[in-house]
Each structure stands twice: as structure tokens, then as C-alpha cells.
Amino acid sequence: MKSHRIGERIVVSRSGDRWMATISGSIPDWQRQSLELWLGAWAALGAMLAYGAWIFPGGERQFYLICMGFWAFFFMRGWKAVRWRRSGQEVVQLSQDGLSIRLDHGEQTGKAAEASLHELKSAQAPAPNPKSFLESMDQQFWVIGGERIHVGTESKTLVFGKQLEAKDSTQLVTLFNKHLAQLKKA
């Protein structure tokens, strides 16, 4: 098995006709700790909202319960982000069987999005739009998203490469397309 790194977060390996890229979801320690601190403060706010819903009667209780619904939504988003940043990784495999992309968390294997080899098109890394607010938000460390690499099929587009640097995503696309071409020739 032959492997090498692209940037800080990507490990590319090849064994026979199987090509695999593993993209780590890790971020610098100060960012991860900030995210965990925010989640702890958010949990404390949730405890205060639950106390208010328990103690106050009538209309105030309804207000606190509605606030708790919004709180729960953002708590789950925060929990998923912390979990991803601690142990998450994208695993991209390309072989004669086709393309498989999954999100793993530690020892827990995620569900794979798959496409057969004959329907795959070349991968692309669209240039980021610095004027797009939503695209800018997708690149922040507290968000899980911002996929940089797009692989088209006949019916859908598969994406991977969460929050990669433009240089790293370009290198990964080049390697992916090179191996895809070799597999389609065989």
C-alpha cells in the first residue's frame, strides 16, 4: 500500500486498483476548545430555560418551551460540530466497484453514498465565491459543511472535501481524476 499526504488533513493511499482519500475533520486546538466552551455555555442556557419552563406558570411556561425548541435545534447542531471536529473523517474510495463516500466518527462507520464507475464524471473543485455570505459561513469552523469537491453522475452530484483549502482540493481533484481515468480504461 502506497500513501502520501496532501496538506495537513488529507491522506491518500492506493492498494492495487483501489484508491482511497481520508480527510480529517480536525481543526486547531484553540478552535476546537472554543467550540466546546460555546457548547458548554449553551448547555447552561438550556438548563436555565428548563428551570424557567418548570417554575413559571401559563403563558411564561409556553414562552420558555418555545425557546427550548430553538435551543434544542442549535444544541444538536453544536453537538454534531463538536463530535465531527473531535473524531470525524471523510473516507472516499474509488475502485472498479465505483465511488463510495462516507463520514466516519471515530470507530463508528458512516453510511456510504455510492455511485457505479460507469456513471461517474470527472471531479471538479469550483472556485470559491468570496462575495457569497452563505459560502463564507460554510467555511467557518463551527459549521459542518463547505464541501469543495463535486463529482457528477447521471442522476446526482456527490460532494466531499469539507472546508478544504483551495490548493489542497485542486491537488486531490487531480489525483482523483487521474485514477478515475485509469479505472475507466481498464
Describe this structure as you would to a colleague.
The protein is elongated, with a radius of gyration of 20 Å. A hairpin with a 7-residue loop joins strand 5 and strand 6. The two termini are 20 Å apart. The protein contains four helices and nine strands; from the N terminus they run E-E-E-H-H-E-E-E-E-H-E-E-H. The chain has 186 residues and is α+β, with helices and mostly antiparallel strands. The chain has a domain at 30-85.
Descriptive tags:
alpha+beta, 4 helices
Q: What is the end-to-end distance?
A: 20 Å
Total number of helical segments?
4
The best one-word shape is elongated
> What's the SSE pattern?
EEEHHEEEEHEEH
Mean pLDDT: 93
Adjacency order of strands in the biggest sheet: 1-2-3-4-5-6
**Class per helix and strand makeup:** alpha+beta
Radius of gyration: 20 Å
Helix content: 40-55%
Largest sheet: 6 strands, antiparallel
E-strand count: 9
- Point out poorly predicted stretches: none
SSE blueprint and pairings:
Blueprint: E1 2-6, E2 10-15, E3 18-24, H1 29-55, H2 58-87, E4 88-95, E5 98-105, E6 113-115, E7 123-124, H3 133-138, E8 147-152, E9 157-162, H4 166-185
Antiparallel strand pairs: 1-2, 2-3, 3-4, 4-5, 5-6, 7-8, 8-9
Helix pairs in contact: 1-2
